[in-house]
Specification:
The chain is of the alpha/beta class. The chain is built from seven helices and 14 strands. The longest helix has 10 residues.
Length: 298
């Protein structure tokens, strides 16, 4: 399994011979205004993609969309990806996605696994905030657990703080790699709406055999907690060795743990080449670019 942080929460997951993209937010920098009602009112995205968009989308076989907020899906993500591709999403987002011309949407219920090309995909829940008003106002969000023969289990938590839903997903699936959306995103009022350092620490403590990969940092204006803040927090809590804070464009590889002489699995996933530069899959046959359509709502 190879995981590449593209930017923000956009992640490439390569497992079981397939390449999946999570939350394709691929606009160039300063393409749109700041998130409304948030501090640090500067245009988004704050930084460019670490590689050409053609390299990001090359060889992508499917999309995992946690929700339709504009920092998780944008016009470049919709128009740049080839069609038809399966888009795994939450049922509540169908009304937002249908007008932009996607033809293979596959809504998933929480907890109901589906099989796709040798990969089992299970949707998980979460809480996009700490106060009930924020959770209700921001709407439902999703995570995904990916399992495949011979691969470590990958849990993509999505836009959530540490909460019972995340704890339950870790207990139920025992993931070897956990991707969490950090950055301490916030509005002008109320608490943070994505994980901050303390939530990342709680995640690592709940999964002592897992590698935790924080994303969702230093790319959108309302994410105020930096990579340096995260590193200081997880190191102080004693979990820093298992928290891999990748730069945009960096990858890590993980394989299933080796078996000891008794035949039992020994420890967590084995990492290979953590932090190495991304190697995009070779492009497939050329496809005609779709006509420009309406951008998805925020």
């Amino acid at each position: 399994m190879r995981l590449t942080l593209v930017r923000h929460s956009t992640v490439l997951v390569e497992m079981a011979g397939h390449r999946l993209i999570v939350d394709p937010m691929l606009d160039p920098p300063n393409a749109r205004g700041p998130v409304r009602g948030t501090p640090n009112g500067v245009p988004n995205p704050l930084v460019p993609l670490p590689m050409p968009i053609e390299e990001v989308i090359a060889g992508v076989d499917a999309v995992l969309l946690t929700h339709t907020h504009e920092d998780h899906i944008d016009a470049a993500g919709v128009l740049g990806l080839p069609r038809p591709l399966p888009w795994f999403c939450q049922p509540e987002d169908l009304a937002d996605l249908q007008p932009v011309g996607l033809t293979d949407m596959r809504p998933l219920a929480v907890g109901g696994p589906v099989e796709w090309e040798g990969i089992t995909i299970t949707r998980t829940g979460g809480r996009h905030g700490r106060e009930e008003a924020a959770i209700a106002g921001l709407g439902p969000v999703s995570g995904f657990v990916l399992t495949a023969a011979g691969e470590p289990t990958v849990y993509i938590a999505g836009d959530t703080v540490w909460c019972p839903e995340v704890e339950a997903a870790i207990a139920a699936h025992a993931p070897g790699v956990i991707v969490v959306n950090a950055g301490g995103a916030r509005f002008l009022q109320g608490g943070t709406i994505t994980m901050e350092a303390g939530d990342v620490v709680a995640t690592a403590q709940a999964a002592p055999d897992a590698v935790v990969v924080p994303t969702h940092v230093e790319a959108i204006n309302h994410c105020l907690e930096t990579r340096a803040d995260l590193r200081a927090g997880v190191d102080a809590a004693g979990v820093g060795e298992r928290v891999r804070i990748l730069a945009d464009g960096e990858s890590l590889e993980a394989c299933t743990p080796a078996r000891d002489r008794s035949g039992l699995l020994a420890g967590g996933p084995t990492l290979r080449g953590a932090g190495s530069a991304a190697r995009p899959a070779p492009p497939g046959p050329s496809r005609r670019r779709p006509r420009r359509r309406r951008t998805p709502p925020a």
